[in-house]
Amino acid sequence: MSTALPMLKLSNVSRSFGAFKAVCDVSEEFAPGEIITIIGPNGAGKSTLLNMICGTLPVSSGTITYGHRRLSGLSGDRIARLGIARKFQVPSVFGSLTVLENLMVSAVSRDSDLIERTIDLVDLYGDRHVRAADLPHGKKQWLEIGMALSMQPKVLLLDEPTAGLSVEETRATARFLKDLEGKVTVIVIEHDMAFVRDLAARTIVLHHGRVIASGNYTDIEDNELVRDVYLGRR
Amino acid sequence: MTHALEQAGASGKAAPTARRLRPASIVAIVLVVLLALMPFVAEDYTVSNYRDVLLLALFALGLDLFWGKTGILSFGHATFFGLGAYGMAITTVRFGIDPAWAPLAGLALGVVLAAAVAFVVGFFILYGGVRGAYFTIVTLALAMIANQIAVGWSKVTGGDSGLIGVPPFSVPGISFAEPVAGFYLALGLLSVCLFMSLWILNGRTGLVLAAIRDDEIKARTLGYRTQFILLATFCTSAAMAGLAGAIYATGTGFVAPDLIALLLSTEVIVWVAVGGSGTLVGPVIGTILVWQLQERISSISYAAWPIAIGTFFILLVLVFPDGIPAYLVRLARRLRAGKGGKS
Predict the structure, then answer these.
(1) Is the CB of residue A125 less than 8 Å from the CB of residue A119?
(2) Closest residue of B to A78, CA-based?
(3) Of chain B's two ends, which shows fewer C-beta atoms within 10 Å, N or C?
(4) Cβ–Cβ under 8 Å, residues B35 and B167
(5) B15 falls within a domain
């Protein structure tokens, strides 16, 4: 474990819905510029964990610290202004606005260069005047990633960024995220193991709301418990 | 996507849209110019009527600012119109203020009262996460409570009979008692509010409101204080309704519980819906159209109007969900496309 101050620290974070514990005592540290993938079966608590980090859901117990700042109790908009951006599992863009307008709304500043750079980065220049609702699924995914990036975040939370993307687009997404390594802390939830392998990042496995394994992907692939509950036996 | 990666960091070509004159602004300019010419061709009676219609249009504009731009329907907006009217009436009739300053004081009280009530109610319901149909029901209940207060608190409000003797609007040295002066006052206020709204909502503020209307949770994760933005819009909308109500009372010379009644709350929704919600200029046109219709129906039977407005409302939802002007534009496009196809 690095001695430097982590960008994000989860200490015994739990979330319950009535008697059901969706996330149980998760403690993890995320370094500045690190890329982390979170995997696990459906209902493992992955999205709930991201929801708690970005303030959409309050924690039931435990603390989330961002640098020196405690996030627990802060509103979602306050957390976003501190520099934590989120991409949802189902592409969440503003359907009545054009691609350009979506980026104008999300951009941290009115600097037109930032919007121009982002629109090129996500390869949506040709669609800039298209209503977001009319975009195909893959482009909506990219637009939402572009919206998150235009916030110039320090932490980027991505919930299944490759869902519905083609193999080529998925590979491009992995390369794109690798380019962010060292610049932004990226936490990615994914089910696509080829993508997770391509990212070659530290991987956390959640099952029934608990961390059952953590480490590099090769070790995770060889972990008996992970193979039993999620990856399956070859 | 490879292209995207290759382009990363490169200077792009996309330029964010600049604030420019949009069709709604052009329609607004034409409408205001046409209305400004009316006193030159119409009789005083018609001009007086149109003064009231313009104030009702200002009220409709206020509702559209909130409903049209945020997608949240307030079914009790007559509360704010009525508060403006009663604020003006109570100040000028009951307070015994110097007549030279009373209308200005009444105007200030009316607008502040409407905005303050909107702030208190809006704070609890918007920060409490009340949205959609629940918001509509709460505002409906608000209108019913306000109406009961107007009827029951007769010592202050005059009860069922209301208050008479509200003086024409004036500022020291200028009186708006004459129909033409009153008309231009109403047109001036409507124009200022309309063009300010168009200008502000044509920019980033309009985009943010549209974003909140599309997906409030997403807007919050982008860092927007959505509850505060909605509350500010609700208060501005209520203040506009209060302003319209206060000046309206000085034109009619009296206030009655009708000004806070459910019928007026329904009518204003119809005016906005007829013109097309969210267009800002549409509700102004809608108010004029529906008022003309009301004049014709009421001249046959006064009692028929509530039935007609109800029927009209159902027709609107079924046939013109985007408003009559938008329907006519679509129809014209279809006809033009048909002609093009034939030739």
Answers:
(1) yes
(2) B223
(3) C
(4) no
(5) no
The answer to the question of residue B112 being in a domain is yes
Q: Which residues of A touch B5 (CB under 8 A)?
A: 172, 175-176, 179
The answer to whether the Cβ–Cβ distance between A94 and B215 falls below 8 Å is yes
Number of domains in chain B: 1
User: Is A160 in contact with A190 (CB distance < 8 Å)?
Assistant: yes
Query: Are the CB atoms for A198 and A190 separated by under 8 Å?
Result: no
Distance separating the N- and C-terminal Cα atoms of chain B: 43
Instruction: Report yes or no: B20 at the A interface, CB cutoff 8 Å.
Output: no
B12/A116 CB distance under 8 A: yes
Q: Which of A52, A89, A103, A121 to substitute to test the interface with B, most B CBs within 10 Å?
A: A121
For A106-124, write each residue's pLDDT tens digit. 997 777 788 888 898 888 9
- What is the percent of chain B where pLDDT is above 70? 92
Residue A130 DSSP one-character state: S
| Backbone phi, psi, residue A10, to 5° | -105, 125
Angle in degrees, CA B214, B217, B220, rounded to 5: 105
pTM recorded for the entire structure: 0.88
**pLDDT per residue over B261-295, tens digit each?**
888 999 999 999 989 899 999 999 999 999 998 88
Q: Choosing among A110, A111, A116, A122, which should be mutated to test the B contact, i.e. which has the most B CBs within 10 A?
A: A116
**Which residue range forms the structural domain that includes residue B208?**
21-261
ipTM of the complex as predicted: 0.87
What Å distances lie between residue A66 and A48, A98, A156, CA to CA? Answer: 18, 33, 13
Asked if B8 reaches chain A (Cβ–Cβ under 8 Å), the answer is yes
Could you tell me the pLDDT band of residue B300, with boundaries at 50, 70 and 90? confident
Determine the 3-state secondary structure of A200 from DSSP.
Answer: coil
Give contacts of B10 with chain A, Cβ < 8 Å.
Answer: 117, 120
Cβ contact, residue pair A110, B223, below 8 Å: no
Q: A77: distance to nearest CA of chain B, Å?
A: 4
Tokens of B147: 């109406």
Instruction: Map out the domains of chain A with their CATH numbers.
Output: 1-83+154-234 (3.40.50.300), 92-152 (no CATH)
Q: Tell me if B190 is assigned to some domain.
A: yes
Asked, for residue B111, whether it belongs to a domain, the answer is yes
Q: What angle do CA A69, A71, A74 make, to 5 degrees?
A: 120
